[in-house]
Design goal:
The complex is a heterodimer of chains A (109) and B (227). With 109 residues, chain A is α+β, with helices and mostly antiparallel strands. Chain A has 3 helices and 5 strands. Classes of the chains: A alpha+beta (109), B mainly beta (227).
């Protein structure tokens, strides 16, 4: 069996520290002509012991990496797609990737 | 085990509805859907569907085994993906039935939303059917569908899934209106994201509010492929 690799928890953007939140919003504004927030998550990465402590006590003294994962429906170059953006704990964008949508033909027709 | 029981109930519900009423016709319905991406946002859906009746019941008479090739439909719908959730489409269908041909124009809007554990689809469509010398028939349809992976959160390649559609069809022909309800529970298998096979039951009841209910139950088989 595999070990625990990271923990993700759905949050509201308002749960993010104001300065970091502002930085994230500024970057979203610069990347997309228009966007709608679909989901925001806090993501913790670290040792299994640290992650278990975060789950149980929402705190740990062990090393832990905190990132924010934001999913938006955004318009870029006239195309609207779903995007997943990863920000570090200071609000700096680490990764922007387009989410490949699953085929919907059996639900549309 | 619970999933098997739930799916069994899911399939048996329409069957029990049919057996509790006077079934008019039952048989097979097969469908092949070939989808061709035309560009990043446009795609062409080609659908060939055929129906064969095997057993019929008329009025108070008992069941009668009677094979009949009911019809074949060939449809083309060109769709524009507005965004990841919403799609607009328009198309044309030809129906071959008893040596006669009818023509149908189709307009549709569909919305598919992905949730953590399932996908929810809404489809609103209108169509206008012209048949040789017959009156124009106009329909307004609404369909809601749910798709859920048999195991896990999403339907991955080589995995089973369950899907259920419920559709309500209002029809206007001359001065008459009617309502038809369709319930289609299916078990699907995804060979890949672009190649899916579904089998289940397609139960239809029309004349819902007019008392002249006609019930049809088809063993439904469908293949969806994107090339």
């Amino acid at each position: 069996l595999g070990g625990i690799q990271d923990v993700e928890k759905t949050i509201s953007l308002n749960n993010i520290v104001a300065g970091v939140r502002q930085k994230i919003i500024q970057q979203l504004d610069s990347v997309f002509r228009k966007y709608a927030l679909e989901k925001a998550q806090v993501q913790w990465t670290g040792s299994g012991e640290a992650l278990v402590q975060m789950i149980q006590k929402n705190a740990t003294t062990l090393p832990l990496v905190l990132n924010y994962e934001i999913v938006v429906k955004g318009r870029k170059e006239n195309l609207v797609n779903m995007y997943e953006l990863l920000f570090d704990d200071s609000g700096k964008a680490v990764r922007v990737s387009e989410i490949v949508q699953r085929n919907t033909d059996n639900l549309d027709y | 085990m619970m999933r098997v029981i739930l799916f069994g109930g899911f399939i048996l519900l329409p069957l029990s509805m049919v057996w509790s009423q006077k079934v008019y016709r039952t048989g097979f319905l097969q469908q092949v859907n070939v989808n061709l991406p035309v560009s990043a946002t446009w795609r062409l859906n080609t659908k060939v569907e055929s129906r064969q009746s095997l057993v019929e019941q008329e009025g108070a008479k008992g069941w009668k085994a009677k094979y009949r090739y009911d019809l074949m439909d060939v449809a083309f719908v060109l769709s524009k993906r507005l965004d990841p959730n919403n799609t607009l489409g328009a198309g044309y269908m030809t129906r071959f039935r008893n040596g006669a041909i009818s023509h149908r124009f189709i307009q549709q809007y569909s919305r598919v939303t992905t949730y953590d554990l399932f996908r929810l689809a809404h489809r609103v469509s209108t169509d206008q059917t012209f048949s040789g010398g017959g009156p124009l028939q106009v329909r307004l349809r609404y369909r809601i569908g749910v798709e859920k992976a048999w195991n896990g959160k999403t339907v991955d390649p080589k995995e089973f899934y369950v899907k259920a559609n419920a559709e309500f069809l209002g029809a206007w022909e001359r001065d008459e209106t009617s309502l038809e309800v369709r319930i289609v529970p299916t078990l699907g298998y995804a060979f890949s994201d672009a190649n899916k096979f579904e089998a289940g039951i397609d139960y239809r009841e029309d004349g819902v509010f007019s008392g002249g209910a006609r019930n049809r139950l088809w063993i439904y088989i469908a293949w969806f492929i994107t090339v």
